[in-house]
Amino acid sequence: MKRIYIICSLAVFLGIAGGISFFLIRDANAAIPASTTFITQSGDTFNFGKDKTKLKLIEFIYTHCPDVCPTTTQKMVDLKEDLLKKGIYGKGIEFVTITIDPYRDTTEILHEYKKGFGIENDNNWLFLTGEKQQIKDDQKQLRKITNALQFQYKDPGNGQFIHSTFTYLVDEDNKFIAKFPMGKEFNKQDVYDKILDKIE
């Protein structure tokens, strides 16, 4: 009986360990496809494959979000100030915000969203969306990056998206480094330390 208990316990442990290892390996190998292209809040084309100069802190939002998204953006604004003081914001790290609602979040809407946080003139923080005329293609582009980073989202039909609550740090080659909670759980110090660890 004792042997059966030990064997069962060992099987459960190995199963859990295997599952954890699978997710760790999956995250470690995640990378944004080089072909992923969006439109910036200024109307310019942005291609992840051509931008290999800095680390990127990526957040996914939609501007109609009532809580988690704006809370995360505000915490990133605060983080930006700390990185500016360190002299690395815009040099070693840039921020990228991608809307999961490109149909409603036009370039004009994203510009106003940036303005609301006092970052409308920040060229080192890109806000990305698609074009309404080709919304199906834009959704495919969006899925390329959300699938690569395992970010899940869904519109249940009422315009209030259900989505994962993580932000992502990727390297100069757009490969996954780490992920951090969104909203109130976004720990500015943890993100700051990780960025410095990768730059210095």
TrEMBL record:
<protein>
    <submittedName>
        <fullName>Protein SCO1/2</fullName>
    </submittedName>
</protein>
<feature type="binding site">
    <location>
        <position position="65"/>
    </location>
    <ligand>
        <name>Cu cation</name>
    </ligand>
</feature>
<feature type="domain" description="Thioredoxin">
    <location>
        <begin position="26"/>
        <end position="200"/>
    </location>
</feature>
<dbReference type="InterPro" id="IPR003782">
    <property type="entry name" value="SCO1/SenC"/>
</dbReference>
<keyword id="KW-0479">Metal-binding</keyword>
<keyword id="KW-0186">Copper</keyword>
<dbReference type="InterPro" id="IPR013766">
    <property type="entry name" value="Thioredoxin_domain"/>
</dbReference>
<dbReference type="GO" id="GO:0046872">
    <property type="term" value="F:metal ion binding"/>
</dbReference>
<dbReference type="InterPro" id="IPR036249">
    <property type="entry name" value="Thioredoxin-like_sf"/>
</dbReference>
<feature type="disulfide bond" description="Redox-active">
    <location>
        <begin position="65"/>
        <end position="69"/>
    </location>
</feature>
<keyword id="KW-1015">Disulfide bond</keyword>
<dbReference type="Pfam" id="PF02630">
    <property type="entry name" value="SCO1-SenC"/>
</dbReference>
<feature type="binding site">
    <location>
        <position position="163"/>
    </location>
    <ligand>
        <name>Cu cation</name>
    </ligand>
</feature>
<comment type="similarity">
    <text>Belongs to the SCO1/2 family.</text>
</comment>
<feature type="binding site">
    <location>
        <position position="69"/>
    </location>
    <ligand>
        <name>Cu cation</name>
    </ligand>
</feature>
